[in-house]
Design brief:
single chain, 95 residues, 4-stranded antiparallel sheet
């Protein structure tokens, strides 16, 4: 069953370029994963430092494999998350 993730990130405007660069590198890696069906990164209109991510995987196991990757640790856990002032994540299963 498809598994989707919608994440909303907010960083200080001064950190926006660093977060954007890491998210775009993450997109390259993620789209090459066998279970990944979509990975979209958007800058939130009229909200400096705001990002919206939409990810879809073949199943939850595919998402768990994504989180276990070395590039997730490097790019998201170590680079992006420390720069965020706010982060929310919604998980959804396909019907």
């Amino acid at each position: 069953m498809a598994f989707a993730v919608v994440a909303r990130y907010r960083c200080a405007p001064a950190d926006e370029d660093a977060v954007r660069a890491a998210l775009l590198r993450m997109r390259e890696h993620t789209r090459a994963e066998p279970a990944n069906e979509a990975y979209e990164v958007h800058a939130v209109a009229d909200e400096p430092g705001g990002f919206l991510l939409y990810e879809r995987y073949a199943d939850r196991a595919g998402f768990e494999a994504h989180k276990a990757s070395a590039y997730f640790q490097e790019l998201i856990v170590e680079r992006v998350w420390p720069l965020l002032g706010d982060r929310s994540v919604t998980f959804a299963e396909g019907l």
